[in-house]
Design goal:
With 168 residues, this protein is mainly beta. The chain has one helix spanning 2-14, and strands at residues 17-25, 38-44, 47-53, 67-74, 81-88, 96-103, 110-113, 130-134, 141-147, 153-159. It has a four-stranded antiparallel β-sheet, with no helix packed on it. A four-stranded antiparallel β-sheet has the order 3-2-5-8, with no helix packed on it. The protein starts with a helix and ends in a 9-residue tail after the last strand.
Length: 168
């Protein structure tokens, strides 16, 4: 009986997935907060995880232009991150620039970008209380274009996905 309990505990322990979530607060005046109570849900090809509130106790999260790191443990492996949803639980506006998610099973971080510069707040006069962000093109695209008469010179057109930031 003790062996069965021990095996059950080991199987339960080995199925836990550790997610690392990093958020970058935009480097714009008033984009920081420590009181938004941002609740995160991760979704991927393997399922969905309610990650709960993003908060590092006794730490000022979401300060201007900084990257905050959160660790989440779950019994569910979402596989590759497809999208995430943030719900603002309090009325304190926050502008997230990007969020990355990795796990001990999928260690390569996947990024989502707030390309529309949507402010988050439960007060709808300050921003949206619900934001869904999905993974976009991960690798910058590079296209060689022949240049000049000899055909041996190339001009490279390099495109990057950048967030748009608007200042009122």
């Amino acid at each position: 009986m003790k062996l069965l309990i021990l095996l059950s505990a080991l199987v339960g322990f080995s199925s836990a997935v550790i997610y690392t979530v990093k958020t970058k607060t935009a480097p714009i005046k008033y984009s920081d907060t420590n009181g938004i109570n941002a609740v995160l849900t991760l979704s991927g090809d393997g399922g969905e995880v309610n990650a709960g509130s993003l908060d590092n106790p006794k730490y000022d999260d979401f300060t201007l232009g900084t990257i905050d790191t959160f660790t989440i443990e779950s019994d569910i492996d979402i596989g590759q991150l497809d999208c995430l949803t943030i719900v603002a639980g309090k009325a304190d506006a926050w502008l997230v620039d990007w969020i990355s998610v990795s796990s001990d099973i999928n260690p390569v971080a996947r990024y989502v970008y707030n390309t529309e510069s949507v402010w988050m707040s439960s007060d709808l006069s300050e921003g949206s209380n619900n934001l869904e962000l999905c993974v976009q093109e991960e690798e910058p695209s590079v296209t060689p274009v022949p240049f000049g008469g000899s055909g041996h010179h190339f001009v490279y057109l390099i495109s990057f996905l950048l967030g748009r930031i608007f200042v009122a």
